[in-house]
Specification:
Blueprint: E1 3-6, H1 12-19, E2 22-25, E3 28-31, E4 43-52, H2 56-61, E5 70-78, H3 85-98, E6 102-103, E7 111-117, E8 120-128, H4 147-156, E9 164-167, H5 174-181, E10 186-190, H6 195-204, E11 209-211, H7 218-221, E12 227-232, H8 242-259, E13 260-268, E14 281-291, E15 294-303
Parallel strand pairs: 5-6, 5-7, 9-10, 9-12, 10-11, 12-13
Antiparallel strand pairs: 1-3, 1-4, 2-3, 4-8, 7-8, 13-15, 14-15
Helix pairs in contact: 4-5
């Protein structure tokens, strides 16, 4: 029996390693074991059938034999098509009702999951939906980081037991909470306004050492070459001008050069903006993913001096 985990496009390697599976399409990983508590997935479904198609009628005509007579339908879609996901749902509903099935699009279980990626269609039964919607994410800042991006950053950092992990730009705490939930090393979250982060951490029921210290305090809090940093660096915006961000980056990399043990991972929206600051680090590996029109780069930086 096979299962499919969906994830953000560009982060397939993280889910591949978590499931010990294989990438079969953009954002789609197939695996064999019943691993349903994945931290890197969006949805999980049991695979019934896979087809290649040219038009929507091919999807209807190649429907696999279903185990139940009463079910819901959900369709997701990636790629350029002459139809929308809801078109597939309603045409499939009419098609199945004509064959004697009882279809309720609001039904929660079981759900026929129709997953379309370019010209491939996967049929399955939905097992878990919207796993990425962590229940602790209650108080969020405007430029919050997606949990799957935070999870990928921790994976890229090779976050291990006994590591000291530091996020000096904690915002609403997503990175440090994801780290603390893994129950590996000690986690430190620093920032100017910790209210949202502390609320979320309390809901998550995890232990984080907080501090409202500025960047220039980091080298007084940690020994030389003793920590891993995983953080989402500020971007130029309406509230942060370019010269302000450059000052932040200069101070951050000055501190990182002192306290980072071997490597760190930063999440940025403009990786070219970093180049002038990488005097003590080199880019070792990166993931690139998008949410809407925003592109995120998850960069593993290794110290060179």
């Amino acid at each position: 029996m096979s299962y499919i985990a969906t994830t953000l496009e560009g982060l397939e390697e993280v889910t591949k390693e978590e499931t010990k599976g294989k990438v079969i399409a953009r954002g789609r990983i197939e695996f064999e074991k019943e691993l349903f508590d994945l931290t890197s997935a969006k949805e999980i479904y049991k695979l019934i059938k896979k087809i290649e198609f040219k038009q929507i009628t091919d999807i209807l005509n190649n429907l696999p034999e279903l185990e139940v007579k009463e079910l819901g339908i959900l369709c997701t879609r990636i790629g350029t098509h002459h139809f929308k996901s809801v078109d597939v749902q309603y045409q499939m509903k009419a098609y199945l009702q004509a064959k004697g099935y009882t279809i309720d699009l609001k039904k929660k279980d079981p759900i026929l999951y129709i997953d379309i990626v370019d010209n491939t269609c996967f049929f399955g039964y939905l097992i878990k939906k919207e796993i990425y919607k962590r229940n602790y994410r209650i108080k969020l800042v405007a430029d919050t980081v997606h949990p799957l991006i935070a999870n990928a950053a921790l994976h890229l950092a090779d976050y291990k037991k006994n590591d000291l992990l530091v996020d000096p730009f904690v915002m609403d705490g997503i990175i440090v909470i994801e780290a603390a939930l893994q129950k590996k090393g000690k986690v430190f979250g620093y920032g100017k306004n910790l209210r949202c982060a502390k609320v979320n951490a309390k809901i998550a029921k995890i232990d984080i050492e907080w501090g409202d210290y500025s960047l220039d305090w980091l080298d007084t809090k940690f020994k030389k070459e003793s920590v891993k940093i995983v953080t989402y660096l500020p971007s130029v915006s309406k509230t942060k001008l370019e010269n302000q961000v450059k000052t932040i980056y200069k101070d951050f990399f000055h501190q990182a050069e002192f306290i980072v043990k071997k490597e760190m991972v930063v999440i940025v929206r403009n990786k070219d903006f970093l180049k002038e600051y990488l005097t003590a680090f080199t880019l070792e590996k990166e993931y690139q993913t998008s949410l809407g029109e925003t592109t995120y780069y998850i960069l593993a930086l290794k110290r060179t001096i």
